[in-house]
Design a protein that fits this description.
This protein is α/β, with parallel strands linked by helices. It has 2 domains: 113 residues, Urease, subunit C, domain 1, CATH 2.30.40; 306 residues, TIM Barrel. Helix content is 35%, strand content 21%. Strands 1, 2, 3, 4, 5, 14, 15, 16 and 17 form a 9-stranded mixed sheet that branches. Strands 6-7-8-9-10-11-12-13 form an 8-stranded parallel sheet. Helix 2 packs parallel to helix 3. The longest helix has 18 residues. The radius of gyration is 21 Å and the shape is globular. The structure holds zinc ion. Zinc ion binds next to loops. InterPro entries: Amidohydro-rel, Metal-dep_hydrolase_composite, Metal_Hydrolase, MTA/SAH_deaminase.
């Protein structure tokens, strides 16, 4: 006989479930049993529940699904604040030589920093698109997965790769790329070693060649075949800048979306970062194939990439989630502030005051992200039977207390403090502090590794 599930009761809080109907309760409750949500509804929790190990008074709080980040590059945590006034291609060219010097100690510390910053701000599911694998520098993928497991955050490692160096017409220097065969073999090994396909998995792997201008056509093609043979998802960067569009037209005689389609890279098992420069026909192709998009508004602004057509994508039925993107192009590394930035950036322009609403922004950062990661049946909304990944946001302090609508307060207001976040029913944040890791120790380790990298890369003496 299995032991009865331990229950956590959260009540007296506003609840935004982000279910299909957008159900909200001004004062409601949620019951966690083990790693699942058992019930959610208006008013106090049902009386007479057994096995209640914790009762949380959520007065003055908003309860939402945990935030889901759909695009990131953790290693960039230790190269923040560089090349601060560059467009994408110039920024990449400036940073590749430094990135090519990373090692396992650096990727581990940087992953911890990236994860800690997001988890503290309500992220319960993270992803890392890691595509820099210098030879002989240790088990970089393992170091990143270890960091996520230690933090207690649900995680997808998108095993990236680059095989189109400068001598093959690509953007990265030759010393920063792998061979086609090495990239495919290492990706397959990572899937075999770490991918967990089960319901509630804490670690998933995706196949993730970096971008059209840093990988060969063959790597895209064979990467897609590998992913489908293994039953894992596919991720890459797409249609980020006008320069990328020009690159594709010159080299392949077509725009990025057609190029992706020709290599097997449109489909409901694919999600792509950015998708800024999309014609109506590109959006229609994404909608038809259910290809997902990771919208990264701050990074797009930082690199002057442009404004993704998120309202048009949503209207067409394209799955859209939010992404921080790497912190070399979004130094804050927070996802909860991306809710606000997504709303603001998509409203830029005349008569766009309702282009994206506060509730749509919250949906992008929760359910939308879950859908893009292929996990909408497990996470992304507060519904009975789903995994207990949730955030209790404090709304009764100076920053938010005078705003009556808690969802408007969360999205439009200052970054809200997290009183409690749970992943699989287990606390990750309590009273604004991580309980699964020592933030101060991580801050020291990331500073040390950032200095080490700067020294090795010759940025400092
Ligand atoms: Zn990126």
């Amino acid at each position: 006989m299995t032991a009865p599930a331990e229950r956590i009761v959260i009540e007296n809080c506003a609840v935004a479930t982000v279910d299909a109907d957008g159900t909200e309760y001004p004062a409601g409750h949620l019951v966690v049993a083990g790693d699942r949500i058992e019930s959610v509804g208006p008013g106090p929790a049902p009386a007479g529940l057994e096995g209640v190990v914790r009762r949380v008074d959520g007065t003055g709080h908003l309860l939402t699904p945990g935030l889901v980040n759909t695009h990131h590059h953790f290693y960039q945590w230790i190269t923040r604040g560089l090349a601060t006034d560059h467009n994408l291609f110039d920024w990449l060219v400036a940073l590749y030589p430094t990135w090519a010097r990373i090692d396992e100690a650096m990727t581990h510390a940087a992953a911890q920093g990236s994860l800690a910053m997001m988890a503290r701000g309500g992220v319960t599911t993270a992803m890392d698109h890691h595509y820099v694998f210098p030879r002989g520098t240790g088990d970089l993928s393992g170091s990143i997965i270890r960091a996520a497991a230690g933090m207690g955050v649900r995680f997808t490692l998108a095993r990236g790769s680059m095989d189109r160096g400068e001598s093959d017409g690509g953007l990265p220097p030759d010393f920063a790329v792998e061979t086609l065969d090495d990239a495919l073999a290492a990706t397959e090994e990572t899937i075999d070693k770490h991918h967990d396909a089960s319901f509630g998995a804490m670690t998933r792997i995706a196949v993730a060649p970096c971008s059209p201008f840093s990988v060969s056509t063959e790597l895209l093609r064979q990467g897609a075949e590998l992913a489908r043979r293994k039953g894992v998802r596919l991720h890459t960067h797409g249609s980020e800048t006008v320069e990328e569009e020009q690159f594709c037209r010159e080299l392949f005689g077509m725009g990025p979306t057609d190029y992706f389609e020709s290599t097997g890279w449109l489909g409901e098992d694919v999600w792509m970062a950015h998708c800024v420069h999309m014609a109506d026909s590109d959006i229609a192709a994404f909608a038809r194939t259910r290809t997902g998009v990771a919208h990264c508004p701050s990074s797009n602004a930082r690199l002057a990439a442009g404004i993704a057509r998120v309202p048009d994508m949503l209207a067409a039925g394209v799955p859209v989630g939010l992404g921080v993107d790497g912190t070399a192009s979004n130094e804050s590394g927070e996802l909860h502030t991306e809710l606000r930035n997504a709303l603001l950036i998509n409203r830029l322009g005349a008569h766009r005051e309702a282009a994206l609403t506060a509730r749509q922004a919250l949906r992008l950062g929760t359910y939308g992200g879950a859908r893009v990661l292929g996990r909408a049946g497990e996470i992304g909304s507060l519904e009975a039977g789903k995994l207990a990944d949730l955030v209790l946001w404090r709304m009764d302090t100076l920053a938010h207390a005078s705003i009556a609508d808690p969802v408007a307060a969360l999205v439009l207001g200052a970054a809200a403090p997290v009183t409690l976040s749970l992943v699989n029913g287990r606390p990750v944040v309590e009273d604004g502090r991580l309980v699964t890791a020592d933030e101060d120790a991580i801050a020291r380790a990331t500073r040390e590794q950032a200095r080490r990298l700067a020294r090795i890369a010759g940025l400092t003496g």
